[in-house]
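Provenance

Sequences were taken from public entries as deposited. Structures were produced by running a predictor on each sequence independently, with no templates supplied. The record for Ascorbate-specific PTS system EIIC component from Caldibacillus debilis is shown for reference.
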Amino acid sequence: MEVIKWIADNVFGTPAILLGFIVLLGLLLQKKTLSQVISGTFKAVIGFLIISAGANVITGSLGVFEPLWKEVFGLKAQKLSGFLGQDKFNAEFGSAVTLAMTLGFLINVLLARFTKLKYIYLTGHMMFWTTTIFAGIIVHEAGDVPYWKLVAVLSVIMGLYWTVQPALTQPFMRKITGNDNIALGHTSASVSLLAAILGKYLGNKENDSEKIKLPKGLEFLRDSNVITALTMGTLFVIGATVVLFKDTPGARELVASAGNQNFIVYAIVQSFTFAGGIAVVLMGVRMFIGEIVPAFNGIATKLVPGAKPALDCPIVYPYAPNAVILGFVGAFAGALLWLVVLGNTVAYVFVPTMIVLFFHGATAGVFGNATGGVRGALIGGFITSTVVAWGQFIMVRYLITSTIPDTAMWAADSDMFIIGPLIKLLAGVLF
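Predicted structure for Ascorbate-specific PTS system EIIC component:
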């Protein structure tokens, strides 16, 4: 048991190591030279860590953006009480979560080997958080659950989810990438599917976001780095300007966080920091994909014939960089709307976790653009904010209240909100 837990923590719980091991195994199965094995494995790990580094830069910038806009709307953080919280939950159920994650991955591999669903889910960090959230729902619903039963049920649920989810999104992935080499393995799948479906009926495929005709004086907008900085800069400056005119403790604290720097200038720098983080993520994706796809052929041909790697959502960004921004803009606009609506209707303070809204909204934007062009991308973003806002409210208030509602407010994602009620029903039947 200790060995299994160690493997779960240090391999499956460490995405870079898990993916490095997959690349290593794939290259060895292809009988590559020692030089090729070392180079491919190291570059894959480095590429993945570059993605993580870029994501951390984005997160840091959004850590300013989120409280800035909360202050604009005069919203306070949700106060919760009477729940375990992530630390206590990990102490009590963490080993069950990691063991279920490990066994669930093995079920995924077996299903890929013996069924027509040839997808292996490799987004390690999402494997952990999804299993954690679903465990929180089960424990909240069933109370004192037997360890073995929790592990068994979670393992089957996760194994099925990690196998079926990439299969559902693959028809649209083929449209986006132009091939069948890679799949999407991410909890933004539900909003991406909705974006693609609604984009087909409500959008205009001919008006592709990547074919937008710009006047010569605006050709700089074709550069994804520039359009990212411009969009975020506009939102940051608007928020900062409003805050400067507010004389509240929160506004004064935000302005003070800029130190000796002018608050508007500070906001502009944060927008460029965000754009830099996106550029780093995309560089890491290109480096990582360049190694994982060829190496994966070794596993596909030897262990799981015909298998495809299901990878993190930034893999789709290079295919439609304009749609990435449009998706986030749609998600942000929706988040502002639902902030006000939820606060004034059900008295719930929606935490618009910008990292979720960006990555999920951007992915939905790419899917929406594939079927509905610019309008489809914007619709995809708005769908994302709608699912995240109302899903967070339902989960925090009804599905996970006594266990880890704190985690649901920042780490729960679109698929978790969509599948959450089903997990609650299953827990009521099986426990």
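The longest helix spans residues 354-399.
Residues 1-59+96-430 form one domain.
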